[in-house]
Amino acid sequence: MRDDRRRRSIKEGFDLGLGFFGLFTAAFFVITLVYEILRMEALGWAITTLVFALLVAGIWFARREVLRRIDQQIDQD
Where are the alpha helices (DSSP H) in the chain? Predict the structure, then answer.
């Protein structure tokens, strides 16, 4: 029971980070799209979008790895 709560707590933390940075990724993507449509300089916005997208991907892979390790630890006990 305790391990299930721990797993849920860790998962919620990762999900919160994914939601937070995912929101900014979507916002910067829209800004980049608008700048491109208006033929304005969008390189800075595009790079920012890329950084946020890579951050979201990194959090996603870290979440999978941490949850996998917790599941392995539970199976060993």
Answer: 2-37, 43-76
